[in-house]
Amino acid sequence: MRLTSAMLADAAQVTAGKLYVLGGAFDTITARTFPVVYRSLAVVLVAEVGPGDRNRDLPLRITLLDEDGADMGVESVGNLRVGAPSSLPAGAATVVPLVGAFGNVRFPKPGGYLFSVEHEGTELAHIPFRVRLAT
Fold first, then answer.
1. For residue 31, which of 36, 87, 103, 106 is within the disulfide window of CB 3.0 to 4.6 Å?
2. What is the pLDDT of residue 89?
3. Per-domain residue ranges for the chain?
């Protein structure tokens, strides 16, 4: 498995194998005061799953870290399982959209943050962003 896309969005969902994104692909959150609670934040991923990774659990972990690498206590852990559609040619990869939705994420201060996406202890992607004070 490998990720072909990774971004932040205000919201996203997967319906019938298609990805729907609202307010996606940003790298800055602006707040009037701190701490700030961001009501809705989504980590949007597109995975390419090859034949060797089908029909088994593929563990994924999404973790929020601050600019010093400290765990912010915000994470999503789960398993992805992709079958082999009969319409897929032998040996072909499957594209799978995924969404990690987070509600009421608290940022204590302005600065840099990132979401890290891991599979079996290996980082597949990191999505850096900053939270800044409105001027």
1. 36
2. 81
3. 2-133
Task: Phi first, then psi: give them for residue 115, nearest 5 degrees.
Answer: -100, 130
Assigned token pair, 24: 């996606």
2-133 adopts what CATH topology?
Answer: Immunoglobulin-like (2.60.40)
Q: Hey, what long-range contacts does 117-124 have (CB within 8 A, 24 or more apart)? A: 117/3, 117/6, 117/43, 117/45, 117/60, 117/61, 117/62, 118/60, 118/61, 118/62, 118/63, 119/1, 119/58, 119/59, 119/60, 119/61, 120/59, 124/1, 124/2, 124/3, 124/6
pLDDT digits (tens, 9 = 90+) for 3-31: 999 999 999 999 998 999 999 999 999 99
Question: Is residue 99 within 8 Å of residue 13, measured between CB atoms?
Answer: yes
How are strands ordered across the β-sheet holding 94-107? Answer: 18-24, 2-15, 36-49, 94-107
Locus of tokens 């009037």? 32
